[in-house]
Structure formats: C-alpha cells, structure tokens
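Hello,

Our lab assistant flagged a job as stuck in the queue for most of the afternoon. It eventually completed. Since we weren't sure the result was trustworthy after the delay, we are filing this so someone can double-check. Below is the sequence as submitted and the structure that was eventually returned. Let us know if re-running is recommended.
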Amino acid sequence: MKICFIVGSFPYMDCGVGDYTSMIANALARIGNEVSVITSVNANSDVDNIEVHNIVDKFNYSSIKLIIRELKKINPDIIHIQYPSHGFYNRKITSILLPLMIKKKIKKSKLVETVHEYPKYSWKGKCIYWINYKIMDKTIFAEEYYNNLIKKDFPNMYKKLNISNIPIGSNIPQSSICELDKKKLIDKLGLSNKKIITYFGFARPNKGIDDLFKAISVIKDENIKVLYIGELRENNEYEKSLLELMEELNIKDKFVITGYIKTNIEVADYLSISDVCVLPFKDGVKERYGSFLAACTQKIKIITTSMEEREDEEGIYYIRPNDSNSLAFKIKEVIDNKNIRSNKKVNDWNDLAKLYVQAYNDINVK
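-- returned structure --
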C-alpha cells in the first residue's frame, strides 16, 4: 500500500505530532508499505525507509497547489492528514480547503485524518473540525474520549462518520543505557548523590510547570534536584515567565535545564536516571500525552494528575491538578523508595501500524 502523510512538522522540529507521525510512518514501512511524508521545509529529509518531501514553507492557501502537485507525483493509495500540528495551528481555512481540494483533484486516493485534539469550548472550532470529519473517508481519533464529545455535540451527524479509535505509542524508546553509563551521565550533569526529579516536555500553560516550581520551593531537602528535559528560553513569552517565577521562588539552583534534545534515545537515557518523573498537567493526564507515555516506557516512578479521584497504580501516583502542596507531599513520600517502578504497558508501534492498515482497508468495506 502506498501511504502519504501530510503533517505540519516532522523531526527534528519540536512537535509531538511530528514525532508521532515519524513513528507510525516508520512502523508502516517496516511491515511492507511504501510511505512518504509531505511536511515543512524545516524538517529533516534524511530518513531511512520513508520518502520525506520537506517542501512547504507555510501551510496556507498558497501551499495547497504545491501539495496537490506533489501528491499527484507520489500517487498514493492513502493520503493521511495529521491534525493539528505545528504549522497547521491557526491555519483553520487551510485545514478545510486542503482536504476539499484533495478530494476534488485526486479522486483515486482515499483521504484519512488523525485527530490529535478536539476543541472543547469554541463552536467555531468544533464546526471546522466537523467539516473535516465529513470530508474524510476515514477519521481516526487518538483518544476514545473524543468519541463521547463528538456524539454529544453532533448526535445525528455522528452516525454518518467512518471512525476508528487508534491509541498512540511512546515517541521515546526504552533506554538501553547500562548502570555504568547511567553513573557517567549523572556525574556529567552534576547530579551525583542527588535525588533526581525529572520533568520532560514542551513548556505549555497546561503542563503545570508552575505547580512543580512551587512544590520544589517548599521541599526542604538539599539533595533534591530537578532535571528539566526541555527548553526555557528568554525569547519565548511563556517560558520567560517561568524563568521569572523560578527567580522569584529562589529555586534556580535546584534545576538542571537540558535545552532541546534532538534524539529520542538521549531523552530516554535522561529519563532513565530519575528517581521520580513529575508531570502535573492542569487538565489531568491523558493516555495520549507523550511525556507520560515516555516516562511509562522507562518504567520509572511517576507523579501526575487526574481530574477525578483515581487509585494509584504500581509506581504511578495521582494527585488533583493545581495543588502544589499535595505535589510536594507526594514527592517527599515516594522519592526515596528505590524498589518501586511503574509497570504500565505502552502500545507497540508495530501493533499500532497493523491497526492503521486495518483502518485503511475498512474504507473500502464501509
């Protein structure tokens, strides 16, 4: 089967949907499909097993003809849009016009979209998404929870959609670093004999990073250090506000900030040295959240949040969002126990690729 993905970003651009697309595209290629990707000019094109067409400067109206022309050259059986992603954000008109033009100009190919987010509040946004679902030959949701939201918003029209629910896997592989190399990495980071808390992810307001900062400020343990796997930049308004909060709370010396890390293997190694990974999402953890899945893959202890009362799992601890005091208490409670590890199963990408092929084949049956 010839499959062409269209996505606003792709490694090494900093976007989880781009990383996701890379992982599922590779998995589909491994099981015998011919896979290509149309993406941003900023993406890496030197990728094994996948043909990367990094040709789009901006995903706007003027790029539609370019994408259509490239699709005609590729001539795929399946055209698969990943939405939203960096590059597709704030391009609402393009997100409708592009699939409409594809359906008009390339009649042979089947059109599929994976939905990574569903707008909860804006009816304008919901209607734009709905138009997309209606255009598609198949819509894939990365989280089954979205089904309930769409049934609620569009109960009559929902029945006419061709929907599959396919979860995501971790963009970050399990670390294979040995104990000796772990020690070397810890020494390199200046974390020898420290209790290591890790945070991993892009800095976004819904990540609860401010709650982590506040929790660290009230923990009076000189041996605790936070390995912040990500960026905090002065030229980014939100990240700058976090740096200012760090200064205000006088906790700068508690943090080691890695900056953006290009390779997923290196991220895995950094996560693997932690005593506990803290992910205090403002809206509660979701099964599609890549940083949570990455931590689960390393089998490390995790403290995260839930909007509902939720029982702790083995090595995974839940608190309510926006509660820095409870977070501080939970960190002190679990960080010293070296014998506990998380044991949550993470979906294998090869298995997910088979579900994708099944979804593609289902288009012809529907």
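-- support follow-up --
The delay was a queue issue, not a problem with the job. The result is valid. The chain is about 40% helix and 20% strand. The mean pLDDT is 90.
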